[in-house]
Amino acid sequence: MATATLPPNVLERVQHDQVAWLTTITESGAPSPVPVWFVDDDGDLVLFSEPAARKVVNIERQSQVTLHFNSDPDGHDVVVVRARAQVEPGKLPSEQPGYVDKYRAALATLPFTVDDLDRDFTTRIRLTPIGVWSPQPY
Questions:
Q1: Using the 8-state DSSP alphabet, how is residue 73 labeled?
Q2: pTM over 0.70
Q3: Where on the phi/psi map is residue 96: left (φ > 0), alpha (ψ -120 to 50), or beta?
Q4: Full set of structural domains in the chain with CATH
């Protein structure tokens, strides 16, 4: 399966959007979307999870996923990244370049610290893009 290079408008969304929706497939075949934090890592997208989370179980069974970015209030600026996901246990958010910097302000509003992230979210999920869908021209 070939990889895809993210076009400039999608890279802009990766840099500035705080949340996107990761959709995995459950054992029964149902889509299972969840909001996630993410960063770019040399063309891949990286997010973190608790090791026993449903999304981890789903990815270990079926590695094809999508990452949907929120539209604008009028339903425009839609971006969906199709990706191959890889579960990487034993990785810490604080060790991922750019992750803590991107979410430092969000963390300040939560009863959660970087140490809490590192304690609970020890599974990195690496998304390698294989396609991008957006009705807008790139």
A1: T
A2: yes
A3: beta
A4: 8-131 (2.30.110.10)
